[in-house]
Amino acid sequence: MHGPMGKGTPKTLEKIGKVDVLICEHTTLSRQDENFMSEFMLQEEAVSLIKSKKYIFILCASTNIDRIASFYHANKKAGEKLFICDIYQKKILDYVSKNSAKYTDYYNFSDVKSFDSELYKKMVSNGFCMLVRSNYFSKKFVYNPRFKNNIFIYSQWLGYLQGKTAEQDLVKFVPRKYHYLHTSGHATAEGIIEVCNIVKPNVIIPIHRNKLIRF
Q1: What's the CA gap between 13 and 112, in Å, rounded?
Q2: By three-state DSSP, how is residue 114 classified?
Q3: pLDDT digits (tens, 9 = 90+) for 132-161
Q4: Which of 25, 38, 57, 191 is the one with CA 20 to 30 A from 6?
């Protein structure tokens, strides 16, 4: 509901009408003190960040297509630097473009470049936005002295960096100074309630929960 296609969700559900059983995620119902921004709000903040530095590194899930689209379009609004990723990420985005661009230009990633040596001079002189992952390939760029005029955007759950759930490889990869810009892909409590009110299920089966919360 807070994603880029969220506006169409209620209309689609209204066409479906009442359902017998709703299998519904429960993740955010235990985080009711957490503030959620929409993907478009995140995108607007990303525009300002991309404008603020010459070199931009972005760490988000490789399959979080809506998040990648947010940064991709933020880069276009900010002045359209090179938008770069590794070969693995490029294959994913090419697949999305092939299957989705005919329906909406929002998922057309045709301008994304996979890194090659010919791009390097343009990257240094013109600046770039680069999708990175916690591997050796990305580390060569993130910690390259040539790109020290950078901002590192971390766009995943903070639990991967902090506390008992921290992933040590990720902790070692992410610079100490980073900008946190993230919104959960999980449905908000308000979104769940709206869906329930539209489809009026006889039974609700909650999943991804630590404890049952009644609302």
Answers
A1: 34
A2: strand
A3: 999 999 999 999 999 988 999 999 999 999
A4: 57
**Who contacts 200 (Cβ-Cβ below 8 Å, separation ≥6)?**
18, 19
Kindly state the tokens that stand for 188.
Answer: 């908000």
The amino acid occupying position 173 is F
pLDDT reported for residue 209: 66
- Work out the percent of the chain whose per-residue pLDDT is above 90: 72
Which of 176, 175, 113 is closest to 144 using CA atoms? 175
Q: CA-to-CA distance for 38 and 57, rounded, in angstroms?
A: 21
Could you tell me the pTM of the whole model? 0.84
Instruction: Identify the architecture of domain 39-180 in CATH.
Output: 3-Layer(aba) Sandwich (3.40)
129 by Cβ neighbours in 10 Å (0-12 / 13-18 / 19+) ranks as buried
Domain ranges in the chain?
8-35+186-207, 39-180
